[in-house]
């Protein structure tokens, strides 16, 4: 392009000098002035071209550096030993609150002016000095569900709902401090979900950590640790929804996490969810989870995990009655119930995970058990659940497994629809079983699910699940053995 400009300038000068139709022949001084002006203009154009080309190279290289070599760049800047980046290429790169300290240092060590980088749906803003990073967050999950085949007409319903309708933000200050906040509006009211601040650093060349405090999402079970926008099915399995602290998926407290090349471990102590009740003590929940990848190659991986929690219940949370959905989230009548259970004083839950993937095929098995201790000398109550799930990507993607956290993330689609491609297509299957029969009025049930997921790009998906379920409740409106089918669909966008 530069040589073309030079040739064009010389041709213009030759044309001026050779054209006889000019009103008068320019003097030598005028020609010299004209040549000098042309040279200055060409120099200015060259400077602008160099700047534009430099920006284009930086923008094209930034996503690659963020996904593949940010830790290496940071170590070159800080003269640190080499550590392999913990994020797999088949998932969308994490935001400012989830990157490791080496990647955060890489951003701070390479300031290039105020920048805006477009990633999965929304931009990441960086300050000119590389110190401040900010990214908006959002999640829209729209569901429809229809149930048929039950012997109870009250269970044969068609419903719609918003599984999630979230807005939030995340960011960081320097390589160490980070924060995240999200609110959910899906129930037509404001519900604070994730809200924390944290600090990250390194213990050695191969081990880093973070500590976060605030309203925290559980690190518990494989599907229970996966966000609602990343689960391969429309709803998490019964291990995650039934073997759970009484306060649910969130609690206010502190969590420490440690990460190695092929493992992670977390420990947390939390109270209740965000609420306006301070007249009694909170329940206290201590929890841990760890996962290990003993086999980890470019296209295969083995996952082993374990988790547990222990909670001392508040005097305001002694009712342990539970009714767990098993035919999809948006049919509240298809549930397995414990019957009325009062007088709880504490619970302990634990579980194991075993699975992995090879190529586009993944398999995951989970099992969990929860023991509820009751007042008045009554015997403990045990809940038991297990599941086996699998999926296969027909379009060549690797499963969106995050080896840093031991959970699923957003997939990196190879051929997005918005670029004229076919997107990514995944077939899924799951069997799950839930048992509350340790109680006199407790029920049991199971569900078998077949599904297909179409990922239009890395942040947009369409999901379809067909569920055959069976329940056997001993209390409530729908007692006795009953079965039926539920078909559910979802359109989801995460940014």
Structural class estimated from helices and strands? alpha+beta
The CATH architecture of the largest domain can be given as Beta Barrel
The helix-strand sequence is: HHHEEEEEEEHEEEEEEEEEEEEEEE
How big a fraction of the residues is strand? over 45%
N- and C-termini, Cα separation:
38 Å
Task: List segments where confidence is low: pLDDT < 50 over at least 5 consecutive residues.
Answer: 1-23, 53-85
Helix share, percent = 10-25%
Radius of gyration: 29 Å
**Number of extended strands:** 22
Signal peptide: 1-23
Organism: Sphingobium rhizovicinum
Keywords: Coiled coil, Signal
Protein name: Porin
Could you please describe the fold and organization of this structure?
- The protein folds into 2 domains: 2-77; 137-169 and 211-494, Beta Barrel (Porin).
- The longest helix has 51 residues, at 28-78.
- The model is unreliable at 1-23 and 53-85 (pLDDT under 50).
- It has a 16-stranded antiparallel β-barrel.
- Helix 1 (2-18) packs antiparallel against helix 2 and helix 2 packs antiparallel against helix 3.
- It has 4 helices and 22 strands.
- By secondary structure, the protein is an alpha+beta fold.
